[in-house]
Design brief:
SocA_Panacea; 7 helices; mainly alpha; Type II toxin-antitoxin system antitoxin SocA domain-containing protein; two-stranded antiparallel sheet; globular; 4% strand; 161 residues
């Protein structure tokens, strides 16, 4: 399964949010791209994004997504990311990858940015394990611990027989 550049995945998340009638701020987008990547690692056993997120003060961040959309501040994002030479980064998602993004936007897309930040900051999360009170500021969050975390969440959400 192909993993995609962060901006291509961000555009896919923004497109899906629009389909679902939702608008997103940069903080929401950053968290949703990260969460979709985590669920892809857990459910599809493959990364959705071809780069590692970094542990920043306010949570996990794909730096290119932050740089592209920071101009919107706390306002809803209008439009999609545009790459070099005016090309819009796109991802040719598999049906399974599309389903992960659809589900993430449906489940998390209405959450306030601070709520999304709170769930990615909980003790024991990949961000908290990497950030370590600031000692790991800007360190990459390894896919192995992201996968472990989201696999545990998936197991907890399975109906008990």
């Amino acid at each position: 399964m192909t993993a995609y550049p962060p901006l291509a995945v961000a555009n896919a998340v923004l497109d899906e949010a629009r389909v679902q009638g939702k608008s997103l701020t940069i903080m929401q987008l950053l968290k949703l791209v990260y969460i979709a990547h985590g669920w892809s690692l857990a459910l599809l056993k493959a990364p959705l994004v071809d780069q590692q997120p970094e542990a920043w003060q306010h949570g996990p961040v794909f730096p290119s997504v932050y740089r592209e959309f920071r101009r919107f501040g706390s306002q809803p994002i209008v439009g999609n990311a545009v790459g070099p030479f005016g090309m819009v980064p796109t991802a040719k998602l598999s049906s399974q990858q599309s389903a992960v993004i659809q589900s993430v936007v449906k489940s998390y897309g209405d959450m306030h940015a601070f709520s999304l930040s709170r769930i990615t900051h909980e003790p024991g999360t990949p961000w908290s394990q990497t950030y370590r009170g600031g000692l790991g500021n800007s360190d990459e969050i390894p896919n192995a611990i992201i996968s472990e975390h989201y696999t545990k969440l998936a197991d907890e959400r399975q109906p008990k027989a």
